[in-house]
Amino acid sequence: MKILAIHGSPRIGNSKILLDEAVRICNLKKHEIKQINPCELNISGCNACNGCSTTGVCVIRDDMDKIYPLLKDSQRIIIASPIFFFSIPAQLKLLIDRCQCLWYEKYVLKRFNSNESRKALVILVGGMKKGEIGATCAEATIKAFLRTIDIKTHKTLSYLGYDNAGEILKTPSILKEVTAETEELLKDD
Ligand SMILES: Cc1cc2nc3c(=O)[nH]c(=O)nc-3n(C[C@H](O)[C@H](O)[C@H](O)COP(=O)(O)O)c2cc1C
Fold first, then answer.
1. Is the minimum distance from the CB of 100 to ligand 1 under 6 angstroms?
2. Which end of the chain is more exposed for a tag (fewer CB within 10 A), N or C?
């Protein structure tokens, strides 16, 4: 199946380690996987111009042009991101905000409804040991995004208290959990 892996961090660190593990499992099972990182792409913010309200198409031409088809056509989406200021990094939020055109397409123009059961796995890493609110807020944003792109089911794994790049490897059970949850994600309903 087609899988989209989105990495939300501007650095090669904890979330990348976990995403790499998920991608490894997808490759083992010979799925067609595309990886993107909004930090490496040219994505402008939503202007709230409402230009998409009657067309479902964003008026801005940038790297989002390549991403919309991936968001619509992938059967599984994996998002691995750090928590930044109780939310997600701005670069990933830019991508999400630019999905306002898909929101219009789905909820107003009623043209975008995937029949397939598409699913997502969300992996969040935060540095704060007692930062549950960060994971809650980050997940809320990502959940709104997933519902907008018509993904009704997702599982979130949150790992808190891992700040330095690579520190996540100190707890080997985390990689094992990511392995198991990726295998679960790839199962057909
Ligand atoms: C700008 C910035 C804001 C951050 N805000 C939070 C936060 O609100 N809550 C938290 O738990 N960690 C926060 N952190 C820590 C990161 O989530 C943590 O370092 C994480 O391991 C980074 O993941 P990465 O290695 O995949 O980039 C912040 C880090 C940065 C750079």
1. no
2. C
